[in-house]
Design brief:
The complex is a heterodimer of chains A (114) and B (111). With 114 residues, chain A is mainly β. Chain A contains no helices and eleven strands. Chain A is globular. Chain B is globular, with a radius of gyration of 13 Å. Classes of the chains: A mainly beta (114), B mainly beta (111).
Chain lengths: 114, 111
């Protein structure tokens, strides 16, 4: 049963620290998405990649967030420096199929910044 | 503007009763349509999808949805809900690698 995996599942850190979240997409999927979910804003698209190339990262605060795909089996989302307002659940999803919109989600990383 | 509306923030249904969750969208062309479910503390799981063809689509866990082009709707239904169906349900529409998400409907099951 192919699944998207994310690590860590939970992260508590202090303001100003660097946070790195990792995602392993489903083998063979060529699109990867990063989302953030909060009670106030709901589900927000931060960035997405196709064939490892970033296609859109307009949803991401550029000054502190960065997303990369070093290879086809790993996507990373980094926050440096972290702030309390970054506290949220971060989801990675991978996709395939028609127009790349059919997305399969990982379990998420719950980030708390104190 | 492209948008997805799930008019009900919460819905409470008795166990064993039927369920319909509403989804309306505004989109330039007929998009691809999806329903996802999110249980507490979990990621989003794909319930069903519509790309083309038969407008009544079957999904997992006994759910189905009907695409009505004239109403720009894609409502989710289940004939008899189980306590395990308590979760949040998201409608999404899109094309070209991007989905537009509804705000979600939280389903509460009464025993």
């Amino acid at each position: 049963d192919a699944r998207v995996t994310q690590t860590p599942r939970h992260k508590v850190t202090e303001m100003g620290q660097e946070v790195t979240m990792r995602c392993q997409p489903i083998l063979g999927h060529n699109t990867v998405f990063w989302y953030r979910q909060t009670m106030m804003q709901g589900l927000e698209l931060l960035a997405y990649f196709r064939n490892r190339a970033p296609l859109d990262d307009s949803g991401m605060p550029k000054d502190r967030f960065s997303a990369e795909m070093p290879d086809a089996t790993l996507a990373t989302l980094k926050i440096q420096p972290s702030e309390p307002r970054d506290s949220a659940v971060y989801f990675c999803a991978s996709g395939s199929g028609l127009a790349g919109v059919e997305q399969y989600f990982g379990p998420g990383t719950r980030l708390t910044v104190t | 503007a492209q948008s997805v509306t799930q008019p009900d923030i919460h819905i409470t249904v008795s166990e064993g009763a039927s369920l319909e969750l509403r989804c309306n969208y505004s989109y330039g062309a007929t998009p691809y349509l999806f329903w996802y479910v999110q249980s507490p503390g979990q990621g989003l799981q794909l319930l069903l999808k519509y790309f083309s063809g038969d407008t009544l689509v079957q999904g997992i866990k006994g759910f189905e949805a009907e695409f009505k082009r004239s109403q720009s709707s894609f409502n989710l239904r289940k004939p008899s809900v189980h306590w395990s169906d308590a979760a949040e349900y998201f409608c999404a529409v899109g094309s070209n690698y991007q989905l537009i998400w509804g705000a979600g409907t939280k389903l509460i099951i009464k025993p």
